[in-house]
Amino acid sequence: MSVNAIVPLTNVGLLTAAVASAAHRPPELPGLVVMYGPSGYGKSLAAAYAANLHRAYYIQCRESFTKKAFVIAMLREMGIAPMKTLNDMLDQVAEQLSRSGRPMIIDDVQYIIEKSAANIITDLYEASQGTIIMIGEEQVPAAMSRRLERLHNRVLEWVPAQAASLDDVRALADKSYPSIEIDDDLLEAVNDRVKGCLRRVAVNLYQIHNEATANGWQMVGLREWGDREIHTGQPPARRG
Amino acid sequence: MATRKVQSALAGDVPPRQRIWDAIRHQHLDDGIITMQGIRIALKHQKPRLSESRISDYLRALIAGGFLVRSNPDAPLATSAIYRLERDVGVEAPRVRRDGTLPPPPGREQLWRTLKIIGVFTGQQLADAASTPQVPVAKATADEYIKMLSRAGYLQTVVEPSPGVPGRYRLVPSHWTGPMAPMIRRTKELYDPNTGAVVYRRVTKTEGGEP
Question: Is residue B47 packed enough to be buried (19+ CB in 10 Å), middle (13-18) or exposed (0-12)?
Fold first, then answer.
């Protein structure tokens, strides 16, 4: 049975370190962590690891969240039967957060950051003084300073998600397809073309693996790959 | 703080320690005096019945872990013991060993948490994402869990597995029933403690037809 080694990805390490310092902060320091970056950078993977490490509660925001729906989603994640009013429910969440000491991860905050539901996060933080981790896209810090100034002031660490490095791509390739050897020059070419988007790197690795299996290659480099396509997610240009 | 008390309890088919913990917290929020008698009364009408030793074992573990403290240690013999809740860690009953230490969370809990977070995954990817240094999750464990969850209709197959190509799966959002991880029982059935229902049962054929 193979026991798993954890793939050491940059963004996983960054978020883990930030959550650890927030969870073990001295009481006078604020307890909010914000990770932001483009979609496909492996933020959710980082969230999963941090969540498992700290047994964090995890909420994924939806465009349709009202204040009430947001709080009910939190209670559902905690497994607590909701009380009647929004105010009571918010107290239930806050009480559980501060008593249990478990952090709460709020993913895809860009969906609610411009809406009234976002004020729930401020209320929750004020009432619980818990550790709250917000994860969202690039515009989140700007939207927070514009709309949620009080919350913005309580951020302990800002964690910009990093584009994949060659080491990340290498780690992913070795982990996902140990049977073939992919040369650094090809990995670098892929990473350049997709601009460090980990999700698209994964798609390309999958295609490289398929092509290698079909052709019986043990090793693939830029030379073997030739002018085969590298998937960038862009629709193909029209040909005249 | 307001005097209004917030009373929360976990939903679903909770483990026995959770029922004892609920009874303890109830007394804690009520007048702060916790007694064996009070716990017994709170659990009186609940089924299945918990044995006396089960309750006292858990109390002993809570004391060893520093959650519960005897508040009349010098009382004469034959006086009933009174406890107070020293560390109220919220609605969730601490999983505490007899010696007061806390075991690492089960791998199943990590799988269940992870599959909601990461979207589409293969068995290997799920195992990787669910692993922590304390609790590594093997691919075989993830594969088995995926198999049972798909058969119960909790997972949707995005790519059918075929030779050389691992299957890819996704959680059906409406089937995230709650925070307690569905568990595979020894009889190869999948039990969901959030709803209290057996959601999948492997059909075993009896040789020579059903009697």
Answer: exposed
